[in-house]
Amino acid sequence: NVDLNEFQTNLVPFPRLHFMITSMAPVVTPKKIETARTDVRAITESCFAAQNFFTKIADFDVEEDKYMAISVNYRGDVKAKEANATVQWLKTNKKVTFVEWC
Predict the structure, then answer these.
(1) Nearest 5 degrees, angle CA 94-CA 55-CA 2?
(2) What SS3 class is residue 4?
(3) CA distance 36 to 32
(4) In sequence order, what DSSP letters do the residues of 10-75 get, joined into one string?
(5) Contact at 8 Å (CB) between 96 and 69?
(6) Planar angle of CA 23, 90, 19, nearest 5 degrees
(7) Taking Cα atoms as reference points, which of 40, 48, 51, 42 lies closest to residue 76?
(8) Local structure of 98: helix, strand or coil
(9) Catalytic member of 6, 34, 63, 64
């Protein structure tokens, strides 16, 4: 168990250059859960979709805006190897872009 302040402190060493954006996925109705994709890749990709952010950023651009760090937390039967492979897939397919100097 970790406090969110600890996440914010440990993820990025420059406190004036960042703020946390929280996202949750999948957010679907019980009726749609039967047809929604619930594999690790689909869940992770939808976490980085702007419509699933808890904070609305009017001019958010996936290709232009960059992340300094991310923390993806899963519930259920998700293996670390699969989670790491999914994050690598996000990076190689330009779904998530990091700053060059991190």
Answers:
(1) 85
(2) helix
(3) 6
(4) HH-S-GGG-----B------TTTTTTS--SHHHHHHHHTSGGGBSS--TT--TTT--BS-------
(5) no
(6) 40
(7) 40
(8) strand
(9) 6
Identify whether 15 is preceded by a cis peptide bond (ω within 30 of 0): no
pLDDT tens by residue, 39-93: 889 888 888 888 888 888 888 787 788 887 788 888 888 899 999 999 899 888 8
Is 6 assigned a catalytic role? Answer: yes
Q: Which residue has the tokens 């779904």?
A: 95
Unique residue bearing structure tokens 């990025």: 12
For residue 81, give the H/E element and its range.
helix 80-92
Could you tell me how far CA 29 lies from the centroid of its own chain? 21
Q: What's the whole-model pTM score?
A: 0.69
